Amino acid sequence: MSENKTFGDLINDMSSLDVVTLTGNLTVQVNDVEVASNGNDDGDRPLRFSRIMRELEGRIMKRDSQLSALAATHVSLDKDTVSFVRENLSTDEAIYLNFHNESVKAAGIARAAMADGIAKLLIGNKK
Amino acid sequence: MGAEAFIATCRQLGELDFSPDVARRALAAAEEELPVRYAMPFPPGPSPVFERGGRDMHNRRGQLHELVQHLTDLAYLTPSRFRQWHEWRQNGEGELSPVLLDAVLSAVGQFVSEDDYAPFGQVDQFPAADRTARLDWTERTLAILVHRAAALTSFDAELSPRPSYRIGERTAYGRSLAFRIRLYFHDFVDRRTDARKVYFDADLVPFLHTLDNSLGDPFHQWLPRREDHHLHPGLQALLLDARIVFEKFRERHRFLPDRRQPYFLVYDLDRPADRGADFLDRLSRRAGKKVAKNAFHQDTGNNRLGVRLLQLCLWRAGFYTGTLDGLFGRMSHDALLALIQQEREAGGTLKEHQLNRVCLPAGEGEDRLWVVDLRLAGMLLDAYMPPDEATANREEELIWDRIRREGKEAALDDQLAHRREEFKGPYGELHKYPDRRVYYGLRGLIRGAFRAIGRVVGWITGVVDDLLGAVFDFVKSVVKRIQEGIGCFLAGFRYFAHYLLGRPFVSLGQAVEGRHPVLLTKFVIDFDVVSFLDTSASGADRRAHTAYLKRMAEGVAFFLGTTVDIIRLVSKLTGTVGWLRLGILIARWVRAWLRGVPRSAAIA
Questions:
Q1: Which residue from B15, B528, B534 is facing A125, i.e. has the nearest CB?
Q2: What is the pLDDT of residues B196-219, one digit of tens each?
């Protein structure tokens, strides 16, 4: 178990599902975020996830960040759901809601599988 | 990172330690170390195997080649497409033509739709259109696809007969039965057309009668009549297991191992004998007299079937890599001699004087023939018959024990990827001879390697150059294991990384002035989900990202479950384990599970 978190913390965290959709400005030039798997600048080029994440996190931390929360949904273990949607959405922004709702569905499916995976690891641990 | 560090990381994951440091090490292992060690790329997204250079992707490419061979044998791809595939392969595996790529992907889709193999029902559905999505799906499920297709084309009883099978049904199993009839009778002889019988149907029933007749009519009571819809399971078993065909042929002609009566096959080949010792000349003259006295003819049904069975056995034992056409030419002849030579070194089944009589030239000049005593050859080949799964695992252990005892495990770990080139020869120029087949039956390969472990060790140390036989079997069995096991693990680890280690799903939208909008979704272990959408992302970009998430969500339970089980398995390993050995252990679990053994039992 991680030193940072007790198992109880983990269980408490897992009892609800929070889905947040942010919008803002983050574009990349592909060359900036590709890396050759062999360390050379040829061959395979998987995306360099860490660089994208760093850029995004850097922007979130900035005071004048253009990032904003569009919608958030909280689903508790008993399936009670609370959603927040930013007021006065423009027509363009409203279409992001479909995306958010799809994310909530995908997250629900994933949660069951994630819980199952964790349970399996836990069972193996107890044997 | 060494294999032991990877095992230690799995142990921490098994203890639910998902801290950033452990996650970083796990990601580095699966996405960087394992791909290098096993020459198999970690799948970062859609879809690197077909579209990239492939320099460090031997195993995945190898798996694709195997899949294409199986799909051709099951008539999902035409022989012409198979030839094009090999031309592409021969030309350095650059960009694959969209037409050929679509043909392969369509074949995959049709195969999956016609087969009721349980794992196909547990993963997400094969995408109806969209080449990229189909590629991604094919790559994720490649190990499963290959395993299943290999079983459908195996002659090692990898499948059980189906009592509910109906003659003419349009299923992958129906194709599998048709393939066997084609192979025994005509498919690879003078083929000038792509037209083939795809499914086993009433038109192929007469061939079953012919086969039964050649074997002495032992299945008479099971042969279907015109009005029958079902095929007796006993007849299905005959087609699924080449060993039964050979046994029945042996019984019919009474050349059983415990009797002294020989059974001769003859073939015409203009090739001098390799050894000219007096006693061999005597044996040869004696064989010539027998041929003359008994008037053996090549063009009898029995001789043709016998030769075909011998060729099939040599193929399954790893000595023959040519076309299964029943024509006993130079390659078949050399394969038989290689078997005799390997057995001479391995010892055990036949004594020296018997080995000398297995294959002899007979007659002179234009009347010269080669004579094979199939009783003796069959006794040699019996030692190469695929054992049951438990025995195969045990023999595999013994091979690794021997390699470890000789202190060669680490050397093999380092060498195997570099020495793959040595095996190009036996595979031949497949674009010129597309009807050649490579044998992929795993238990048979392990048995072949086990039969002459000394040769395998000699090859590792560089003192044995002969590849056909045990060495060929060993390398193929290791590579196939790695492909299956590590392929499954890496495909599943993609889910593990996304859902349990916080690796974000990232899509890049269509570029505007050279810059791509970023769409990103991150799942966290405590089930929080954060999505970020760049405001310049178009509707098509959002739909693509949503479809990506949806696709991954549909397969998550299946792939995550597999990977978690493998991590548990690895976390329990103790002692010194090299990379190859680790790959074999993972593969053994994966194979048990693909064969339908429950996950928990496969781990136990």
A1: B15
A2: 889 999 999 999 999 999 999 999
pLDDT of residue A6: 56
pLDDT in tens, B322-331: 888 888 889 9
The answer to whether the Cα torsion of B130, B551, B535, B499 is positive or negative is: negative
DSSP B515: B
**In B327-368, where do the E strands start and end?**
359-362
Residues of B in contact with A14 (CB under 8 A): 525-527
Contact criterion met (CB < 8 Å) for A113 and B554: no
| CA separation for the pair B390, B393 (Å, rounded) | 5
Which residues have C-beta within 8 Å of that of residue A125, sequence separation ≥ 6?
Answer: B14, B15, B16
For A25, which of B508, B534, B546 is closest by C-beta distance? Answer: B534
Residue B534 sits at the vertex; the CA angle it makes with B533 and B535, to the nearest 5 degrees, is 110
H or E element, residue B559: helix B539-571
B541: closest chain A residue by CA = A99
3-state secondary structure A19-82: EEEEEECCEECHHHHECCCCCCCCCCCCECHHHHHHHHHHHHHCCCCCCEEEEEEEEECCCCEE
Asked whether this complex has an ipTM greater than 0.95, the answer is no
Chain A residues inside the 8 Å CB shell of B50: none
Q: Counting one residue from A and one from B, how many pairs have CB atoms under 8 Å apart?
A: 199
| Cα dihedral across residues B492, B128, B549, A73: positive or negative | negative
Instruction: Note the pTM of the prediction, 2 decimals.
Output: 0.86
